Amino acid sequence: MQATTSSPGEVLLALYDGLFRFLRGAELCFQNKQLVKGRELLSKSHAIISELLLALDHGKSPELCFQLESIYDYCMGTIVQANIKTDAQLISDVLRVLTPLREAWIQAVPEALRQSSTMRNAG
User: Fold this and answer.
1) Contact 81/87 with Cβ under 8 angstroms?
2) Could you read off the pLDDT of 24-61 as tens digits, one per residue?
């Protein structure tokens, strides 16, 4: 059995993958009138965004953190409204807002890992 450790970037990508899986699942559940399961998936989505919000390090990049905080706050509020109204369109709105962020992380994280690896090997 081999233990592996994930970089913070890899953990971030895993969180985004789970978030999108839960949001898409909730959207589908609401469209199919499976409200209990949809609400459960929205609760998980809300928890992930809450963790992303708590993990922001304002000391390292205050402007970026402020922007991400605004996006995450909007998404959490919209998820709450989607849950109350059982509205799949509100979930689509959250997905639309988060998709560019996810795509940016998908590109940035492997690049950061490559640069980090190159710096370690050079040193």
Assistant:
1) yes
2) 999 999 999 999 999 999 999 999 999 999 999 999 99
Q: Do 27 and 95 touch, CB atoms closer than 8 A?
A: yes
Of 56, 89, 60, the residue nearest 70 (C-alpha): 56
Q: How many CB atoms lie within 10 A of CB 90?
A: 21
pTM of the full structure: 0.88
Note whether residue 120 is domain-resident: no
Which residue range(s) make up the domain with 85?
8-114
User: Residues 74-86: pLDDT tens digits?
Assistant: 999 999 999 999 9
Residue 26 lies in a domain: yes
The domain total for the chain is 1
Tokens coding 86:
């059982």
Q: Nearest CA to 24 among 110, 67, 88, 105?
A: 88
